[in-house]
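Renewal narrative, Specific Aim 1. Our central claim is that a sequence can be written position by position from structural information alone. The example that follows is taken directly from our test logs and has not been curated for this report. It begins with the structure tokens describing the chain, in the order in which they were read.
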């Protein structure tokens, strides 16, 4: 299995600015003759069909940033998993902290969305992570475990992203030791909750990943890739992060444990 580098564009992008990211990205990939990782971009829903056209014939994967738990009907403004699929997406980010905090999404809501996404054949990337206050009061592991147990169906077979809320968009990251420890904790929780599927599931790290820290973060044990926000809006930075990715061992995401 390969590491997954996923770009979350958030609420950024118009057609011409999307091209300013996708064109150099595709040109860089052509120069590299491919990459050692799986590469995913998640633009706003308005750009999915546009991006799908641009990415046609390339190995770059396409995803949405959220979906409704509902299939269709009277839910003004919502977008269903089937609509994402119809627009060209094969993946979807769910339970991002900006949705949990800004849109009141509980674990139960995220769970329902995951079920809806899986039912439409989308691969879900489910985000978990503690706030700064929760980390400082020693609750980080318990919070993350409870989010995993509450958000993932027992037959979940997608991807998990550990994103400490305080590291998102701040330029701050946990220490390598803290990332490795949390990823080990997530792995243990996934194995006990999901059995066999939990052993190999990719666990991404997200929160201020940049070219300057990508190599160190992606080399850590149990880090199965990165979820990248700000740096994914610059093709050169996103490519540099992707070039830092590595092949994962067959049975787990294990690699270097910090000294
Ligand atoms: C994110 O929004 O998922 C994220 C990790 O953002 P950033 O890389 O900008 O911290």
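The sequence written for that structure reads:
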């Amino acid at each position: 299995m390969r590491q997954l580098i996923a770009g979350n564009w958030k609420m950024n992008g118009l057609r011409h600015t999307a091209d300013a990211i996708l064109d150099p990205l595709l040109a860089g990939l052509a120069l590299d003759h491919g990459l050692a990782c799986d590469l995913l971009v998640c633009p706003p829903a308005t750009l999915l069909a546009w991006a799908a056209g641009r990415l046609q014939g390339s190995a770059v994967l396409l995803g949405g940033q959220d979906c409704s738990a509902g299939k269709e009907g009277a839910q003004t403004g919502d977008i269903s998993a089937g609509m994402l699929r119809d627009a060209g997406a094969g993946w979807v980010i769910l339970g991002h902290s900006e949705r949990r905090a800004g849109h009141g999404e509980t674990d139960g809501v995220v769970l329902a969305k995951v079920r809806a996404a899986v039912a439409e054949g989308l691969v879900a990337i489910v985000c978990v992570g503690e706030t700064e206050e929760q980390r400082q009061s020693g609750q980080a592991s318990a919070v993350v475990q409870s989010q995993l147990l509450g958000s993932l169906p027992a037959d979940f077979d997608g991807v998990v992203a550990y994103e400490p809320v305080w590291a998102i968009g701040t330029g701050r990251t946990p220490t390598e030791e803290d990332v490795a420890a949390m990823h080990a904790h997530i792995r243990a929780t996934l194995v006990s909750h999901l059995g066999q599927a939990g052993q190999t599931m990719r666990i991404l790290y997200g929160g201020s990943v940049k070219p300057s820290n990508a190599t160190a973060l992606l080399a850590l044990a149990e880090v199965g890739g990165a979820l990248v926000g700000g740096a994914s809006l610059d093709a050169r930075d996103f490519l540099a992060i992707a070039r830092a990715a590595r092949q994962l061992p067959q049975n787990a995401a294990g690699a270097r444990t910090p000294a």
